[in-house]
Amino acid sequence: MIDRTCKETPDFNLCVSLLNSDPRGSSADTSGLALILVDKIKVLAIKTLNEINGLHKIRPELKHALGECSRKYKTILQADVPEAIEALTKGVPKFAEDGVIDAGVEASACEEGFKGKSPLTSLTKSMQKISSVTRAIVRMLL
Questions:
Q1: Residue 124: what pLDDT?
Q2: Which of 4, 37, 43, 78 is the most exposed place for a label (fewest CB within 10 A)?
Q3: Number of domains composing the chain
Q4: Is 132 buried (19+), middle (13-18) or exposed (0-12) by CB count in 10 A?
Q5: What is the CATH number of the domain that holds 120?
Q6: Residue 32, domain extent
Q7: Residue 111, pLDDT score
């Protein structure tokens, strides 16, 4: 199921890696796979927020951009992830897609705020990739 589903996403290897790293993946249906990936978005958002908080202390010149990123990643955690989980749980994938898309948009907006000198590039690129893979799977439910 994981291989077949991941072949329909923009990043087969990332998809397989993420889903195989979760014990629920081997027995999940498409909706369950999407929920696993939404959990991965949540974990990455928490990791990124922790990184932002650490950078606040050592990179005061980036205070404004880091503050903007902090707000964007809090939006991912407080709005986008809960919206996607609720929608997938209730069988309304369109709203799940909205939340997943927004997580990628928030990450992109964070990155742009640094004007090419972002200390968060690897994390924001990861969020964009995971969001893209998750969206592809959510779209299979539409």
A1: 96
A2: 4
A3: 1
A4: middle
A5: 1.20.140.40
A6: 2-139
A7: 96
